[in-house]
Amino acid sequence: MEKTAHQATAKDGTRIHWTSAGAGGPPVVLTDGVGCAGYIWRALEPALARGRRVIHWNYRAHGRSAAPADPERMTMEDCVSDLVAVLDAAGEERAVVTGHSMGVQIALELHRRHPQRVAALVLVCGAPGNPLDTFHDSHLLRYTFPYAKQLVLRYPELARLAFRALVPTDFALAYAMTFEVDGARVRRADLVRYLDDLAQVDPPLFVRLLASAGAHDASDHLPRVTAPTLVVAGEHDSFTPLRLSESIHRAIPGSELVVVPGGTHVAPLEDPDLVAEQTLAFLAAHAPTAAPKRARRDGAAGAGGPKKPRRRTGGARPTTKADEAAPHERRSRGQRPRSR
């Protein structure tokens, strides 16, 4: 898969890095979780790029994007504005917005503010908002995070030293492989990349963005989502529990839900074939590709009403009230994707 590198300029002048691969539209825009710079899309990105244009971008202060001059400009609003800047720089009026973890919130907020820019939504292992309240199905992070944020902002140099010394370690990797993901199905190299990317994010900027995400909630917008929507969930996701994806599915009219059996917060890496197959089928039905544009307004390379969901093959069928009452029983029969 050949990718070209580009830069967009945010409203406040921050340089936002993005890449482009493949051709054909509407394109898919890949939007990460907080602290991430693309590791989750390792398998899905090339599968999508075989048939359409795929754009991946880095949040400000993440990956190859610059940090904002004003550290207070690390908010969800800034991220949504940056995504619009990327779409403009790529010369794309509309796109399939695919988000993982916090990226689900960004995708939903983009639809709230600019619905005309969203051709479809693919929401992967995320919540509509207030993730600090649901992490590991506990309020513990909500109670402890304000103190951690205060310490980081009060002692930024110490926080930087600790972050870079503790995050990319064998202990952190072993903990993640044992308790947070299915270590038998996730490559060690994928989590190493995640920890390395996370360690490069400046802690004061990281906690500011996480605080903004923790206060954000798009739940009220879900019934008004007009774009075709696919929700992908991990059955055993501890970061954003399955019930949150099921609530998104129930609230968005005509949405479809795919549950990865045994999957965790990194379900696209644990069952890449299932996620790619169901995503491609959804896009073929609701956002079919058109011929690529003859000319795009890309940045200089190197410079940096919903349709009724179709029934899936392989056991998919419309969800009933009985289904919603017993989702685990349905998955045990192998009927993983479902639509409302």
The first-to-last residue Cα distance is 35 Å
Q: CATH topology, which one?
A: Rossmann fold
Biggest sheet features: 10 strands, mixed
Please state the second-level CATH architecture. Answer: 3-Layer(aba) Sandwich
Beta-strand residue percentage: 15-25%
Structure report:
The chain has 340 residues and is α/β, with parallel strands linked by helices. It has a single domain, classed as Rossmann fold. The chain has 13 helices and ten strands. A ten-stranded mixed beta sheet has the order 1-2-4-3-5-6-7-8-10-9, sandwiched between helices. The two termini are 35 Å apart. Residues 295-336 have low confidence and may be disordered.
Describe, in short, the structure shown.
The protein is an alpha/beta fold and 340 residues long.
Keywords:
alpha/beta; 40% helix; ten-stranded mixed sheet; 13 helices; Rossmann fold; 340 residues
Task: Map the helices and strands.
Blueprint: E1 3-9, E2 15-21, E3 28-31, H1 44-49, E4 54-57, H2 76-90, E5 95-100, H3 102-113, E6 118-124, H4 140-154, H5 156-166, H6 170-180, H7 188-199, H8 203-215, E7 229-234, H9 242-251, E8 256-260, H10 267-270, H11 272-286, E9 317-318, H12 321-325, H13 327-332, E10 337-339
Parallel strand pairs: 3-4, 3-5, 5-6, 6-7, 7-8, 9-10
Antiparallel strand pairs: 1-2, 2-4, 8-10
